[in-house]
Amino acid sequence: MTTAVDQAETQLNSVEMEDERSKDKRQAEELMEVKVDVQSEDLNSTHRDTRPLIHDRDPKRINKSLKVTFEDVIAEPPSVRSFDKVWLWSHALFEVSRLWCYRFISLLLAVPVSLVAGLLFAVLSCLHIWLIMPCVQLLLINMHWVQTVWGSILNILISPVFTSIAKCCSRITIYLAKDEDR
């Protein structure tokens, strides 16, 4: 038998749970609005004419470890929670500050670092193409006899010795037993 008090408590609990669900839903909707605002701001950038050309800036997924979101850095367990507005503003400030700090730093560093990286890769490519590979090819062409002699030495002298050692050691068996005296 359920009493009127039990029924009232059940109704109160269901109302509280419904309030929590609606609060979580509103919070998620507000977070989505913040994300949409940040993304729409990004779409309104001055690069509209080049946007389709550079839509995927990491096609080979080199920097997939850098996909950090607010939830990856800050998380509140259910037992302790800040005010909803504090959480929303923290999330918004995190996203906006991360975006604008990255943009500012890349504005300062992107061109010089790109120039240095381009020069470095140009020098390394030039050295590889015009110095290293010709030397390697020269060695491979002129050292063919060394490869033949070394292969013969390995097959005639060294390979039989190690094969014999392997056959001798293949019969060795090790048994491990626990010492129960301790």
How far apart the termini lie comes to: 63 Å
Uncertain regions spanning at least 5 consecutive residues: none
Give the total of beta strands. Answer: 0
SSE string, helix = H, strand = E?
A: HHHH
The percentage of residues in β strands lies in under 5%
The percentage helix is over 70%
Instruction: Summarize model confidence as the mean pLDDT.
Output: 80
Q: Count the helices. How many?
A: 4
Shape: flat
Structural class: mainly alpha
Main sheet specs: none
Round the Cα radius of gyration to an integer and report it: 34 Å
Give me a quick take on this structure:
This is Caveolin. Helices cover 71% and strands 0% of the residues.
Description:
The two termini are 63 Å apart. The chain is built from four helices and no strands. Helix 1 (4-43) packs across helix 3. By secondary structure, the protein is mainly α. It is found in: Cell membrane; Golgi apparatus membrane; Membrane, Caveola. Keywords: Cell membrane, Golgi apparatus, Membrane, Transmembrane, Transmembrane helix. Residues 1-14 have a biased composition (Polar residues).
Secondary structure elements and their pairing?
Elements: H1 4-43, H2 70-73, H3 84-142, H4 144-169
